[in-house]
Amino acid sequence: MATSAITDTKGYLADVPEEYVFWCCDGRILKNLRELCDALSAMSEDTFAYHVNAAKNDFYNWVKDIIKDDVLAGNLLKAANARDAFRVVTERITSLSSKPARTTTKKTARRKTARR
Q1: Angle at CA 13, nearest 5°, toward 9 and 17?
Q2: 76 and 57 in contact (C-beta within 8 Å)?
Q3: What angle, 0 to 180 degrees and rounded to 10, lies between the N-to-C axes of helices 82-98 and 33-42?
Q4: What is the pLDDT of residue 10?
Q5: Contacts of 17-20 spanning 24+ positions with Cβ under 8 A
């Protein structure tokens, strides 16, 4: 199942459970996308390179596996540095924040109509 199809877009912005926080090598502990964005805005290239290099991409893995946002995860794969990663996370947060929290499905709409 493509996790990007989830209709509850606010779920991507929520805090992750404590056992799934992101432990950054510079000591920061990140619980959500906004905290990731803040961390990336001030992150040194050395810290970024520790988490993103030829052997691994920790930000991609966390966003894909824990936050379950395939769209953002894919964009993070293309980020060459902390500035690029900050930009894609900022754009995704803006996009998610402007969407309704939950979309109405046809089934839900039929139920609402039937009650009237």
Answers
A1: 115
A2: yes
A3: 150
A4: 74
A5: 20/66
Identity of the amino acid at 28 = R
Are 101 and 10 in contact by the 8 Å Cβ rule? The answer is yes
- 29-68 pLDDT, tens digit per residue, is 999 999 999 999 999 999 999 999 999 999 999 999 999 9
pLDDT tens, residue by residue, 58-94 = 999 999 999 999 999 999 999 999 999 999 999 999 9
Can you give the residue ranges of every domain in the chain?
8-115
The larger pLDDT score, comparing residue 62 to residue 105, is at: 62
Distance separating alpha carbons of residues 47 and 59, to the nearest angstrom? 12
3-state secondary structure string across 8-68: CHHHHHCCCCHHHCEECCCCCEECCHHHHHHHHHHCCHHHHHHHECCCCEHHHHHHHHHHC
